[in-house]
Design a protein that fits this description.
The chain has six helices and six strands, in the order βαβαβαααβαββ. By secondary structure, it is α/β, with parallel strands linked by helices. Strands 3-2-4-1-5-6 form a six-stranded mixed sheet.
């Protein structure tokens, strides 16, 4: 039976995550971010052929947890995966790229040159290698949660069933690693974007069905 995994990046935050680098900083969604999550919820319920999610997972940071709650409404618990917290940007936390360049010019130059190098470490923050290893541990926990429920026949009264999609609401860096490890792709991952992966069964590889969906954010 086909299993579907939906990855959603949280929406805009207080402090403007669209232009500022918030990693471990626990900022909450802004009004725009909540609107983006409601738009994502409407799109998913229209296009997935199901109004429920079998498993709901989120980073423990407020912007992801609230995003998940908005998308699923009253559907079941939200499982927090600590390993899905965004990378620790260290001295770059809360700054725009221009502010980083102005205040830490040498670090900015090194960051632009080496940011995708596994050996790169954010000043006083986390290394790319450690971040990747951490998220990979979270992926294992995620897959265990997704596979822990035996598929059921459709539930009565439009209730959630194990046949429904699984949902993960997290951060750009986390979603990039999840998508890459499961399918080999590297999506762009805008705020509020949706990414849909599928596999035929628990023994089959994941494939990217739809990536970087942002049509629900228009306007």
């Amino acid at each position: 039976m086909t299993r579907t995994l939906v990855l959603v990046r949280h929406g805009e935050t207080v402090g403007s995550s669209s232009v500022r680098y918030y990693g471990r900083t626990d900022v909450e969604l802004s009004d725009l971010g909540r609107s983006q999550m409601r738009a994502a919820s409407r799109w998913l319920r229209t296009h997935l052929g199901s109004s429920h999610f079998a498993t709901v997972i989120a980073s423990p940071l407020r912007r992801a947890l609230e995003g998940a709650s908005i998308i699923v409404g009253a559907d079941g618990p939200v499982f927090e995966i600590e390993e899905f917290v965004e990378v620790d940007f260290g001295r770059f936390e809360g700054l725009t790229a221009e502010e980083i360049r102005e205040h830490y010019p040498a670090d900015f130059e090194r960051w632009n040159r080496d940011r995708l190098n596994p050996a790169f470490t954010y000043p006083e923050g986390e290394s790319r290698a450690d971040f990747t290893k951490r998220v990979e541990r979270g992926i294992q926990r995620m897959l265990e949660l997704i596979d822990s429920t035996v598929p059921l026949a459709p539930a009565a009264h439009d209730a959630p069933s194990a046949n429904d999609p699984a949902l993960v609401v997290a951060h750009r860096g986390v979603i990039r690693i999840v998508a890459n490890r499961l399918t080999g792709i590297e999506p762009q991952i805008e705020l509020g974007s949706i990414h849909i992966l599928q596999r035929a069964n628990s023994a089959s590889p994941w494939r990217a069905k739809s990536i970087d969906i942002v049509e629900h954010l228009a306007g």
